Amino acid sequence: MSSCYKITVDKAIPFAEQLFGELGEVTLVPADSICNAGLKQTDALIIRSVTQVDESLLKNTPVSFVGSATIGTEHLDKDWLESQSIHWCASPGCNAVAVVQYVMSAISYWLNARQLTLDDICVGIVGYGAIGSRLAKLLSYLGIESLLCDPPKQATGELVNSHSLEQLTEQCNVISFHTPLTKSGPHATYQFINHEFFNRVDCQIPKLIINAARGNILDNEAAIKWCDKGGDLMLDVWPNEPAIDDSLLSKVMLGTSHIAGYSLEGKFNASYQIYRQLAQVLGKTNIVSLEKLERELLPEPSLVTLGSGTSLTSLFLSSYDIISDYQILKEVYQQKGASGFKFAREFYNFGREFKGQQWSGKSAFTELKSFLDNL
Ligand SMILES: NC(=O)C1=CN([C@@H]2O[C@H](COP(=O)(O)OP(=O)(O)OC[C@H]3O[C@@H](n4cnc5c(N)ncnc54)[C@H](O)[C@@H]3O)[C@@H](O)[C@H]2O)C=CC1
Ligand SMILES: O=C(O)C(=O)[C@H](O)COP(=O)(O)O
């Protein structure tokens, strides 16, 4: 490795200097300023989901490594990167637990609002990957019924008990989406939550749809129409981010600013995964272990105080406070208009995942806590 190996990193990626500083000279740049002209001296580029990485960004630059500190990869033009022999990677599963924590808080809020209990629900999980499988595992542990829908995994035989989206709409009162955004192929997800889908979800009785995957798997107009009919919709991700539709924001039951994966642990995992892959590409073998860095860089667990009569729903709401994130988004949107969405993300205060929390006050949850710590 040359001492002047140049690494440009989105400045909103935590732990960048501590990790990538070991591998080269780090320049932190705000996402909005990452541009072709600024990459003329860059060997490795480390970005988030908001930076489109394609020919127009990288042509005539020396960039030979692109790392995305995210699970999603639709912002990378992988065909072009591969055609140029530019090594690309992302951070699979990095913040999967944070998204599960988000979904459990969302469901808990809905159950309280609709005066239902965990025993009343059957949860449809669309996309049985890192997030969907962890969600299913937790629901099963809690004795909550769930149905899985993952046609690509059904086709390869990785999932034998996959149901169709139609079956989920008939049999589930909660459906949570955890697919990537894809625009082509037999299982494309672009706007697959559309009029046809919503027409099948009878909202005469309470039904909850959660999208914490990607905004453009949802059709904006169809979503508004369904909310007008009385459907309960919770969105972390929105069509056309960051320019979200204020009409849709006013109709959802809860909405947040694409922060379901914004946990300190998730951010740390993402940065570590890219650090490890860049180190490998550079042929550096003595990388620092995840456990050692976790001990050094992550703060002490945060304290979550549970009252003596805490129910499972209030436990999940205490573990991650979705209501407060909804209020923040509404407030900044009112104050700042369309730029409010970006603002809420930029100044987000990362929370802790289950394993970064210490629960006190209700010993009955010790077993659940240890299950969640290892999710
Ligand atoms: N809101 C947020 O902050 C976050 C959102 N995400 C989003 O969540 C998505 C899922 O994350 P992971 O579970 O880690 O991904 P994953 O790649 O592990 O799993 C995705 C699963 O979706 C399945 N799938 C693909 N097309 C499908 C279709 N048409 N119908 C049903 N299933 C389909 C795949 O076969 C795969 O099993 C990511 O691609 C990302 O876009 C990820 C992290 C945070
Ligand atoms: O990991 C993903 O995929 C996500 O959606 C991220 O949580 C989004 O985070 P940023 O791209 O804003 O870091």
Q: How many β-strand runs?
A: 13
Instruction: Return the domain count.
Output: 2
- The general outline is globular
The CATH topology label of the largest domain is Rossmann fold
The CATH superfamily of the largest domain turns out to be NAD(P)-binding Rossmann-like Domain
Number of helices: 16
Terminal CA distance reads 37 Å
Strand order across the largest sheet: 7-6-8-9-10-11
Give the helix level as a range of percent: 25-40%
Low-confidence stretches: none
Report the biggest beta sheet as strand number plus sense, adding barrel if it closes.
6 strands, parallel
Structural key phrases:
6-stranded parallel beta sheet; single chain; 5-stranded parallel beta sheet; 375 residues; binds the ligand O=C(O)C(=O)[C@H](O)COP(=O)(O)O; binds 1,4-dihydronicotinamide adenine dinucleotide; 38% helix; Rossmann fold; alpha/beta
Protein described:
With 375 residues, the chain is α/β, with parallel strands linked by helices. The protein has 2 domains: 6-94 and 264-297, Rossmann fold; 96-260, 3-Layer(aba) Sandwich (Rossmann fold), CATH 3.40.50. It has 16 helices and 13 strands. It has helices at residues 16-20, 55-58, 78-83, 96-113, 130-141, 151-156, 165-171, 195-200, 220-228, 246-251, 264-281, 290-297, 312-319, 322-336, 340-346, 366-373, and strands at 6-10, 25-29, 44-47, 65-68, 87-89, 122-126, 145-149, 174-177, 208-211, 232-235, 254-255, 302-305, 357-360. A 6-stranded parallel β-sheet has the order 7-6-8-9-10-11, sandwiched between helices. Helix 5 (130-141) links the parallel strand 6 (122-126) and strand 7 (145-149). Helix 4 (96-113) crosses helix 5 and helix 14 (322-336) crosses helix 15 (340-346). The two termini are 37 Å apart. The relative contact order is 0.13. The protein binds 1,4-dihydronicotinamide adenine dinucleotide and the ligand O=C(O)C(=O)[C@H](O)COP(=O)(O)O. Ligand LXYGBJRG binds next to loops. Its EC number is 1.1.1.290. GO terms for molecular function: 4-phosphoerythronate dehydrogenase activity; NAD binding. Its main location: cytoplasm. Keywords: Cytoplasm, NAD, Oxidoreductase, Pyridoxine biosynthesis.
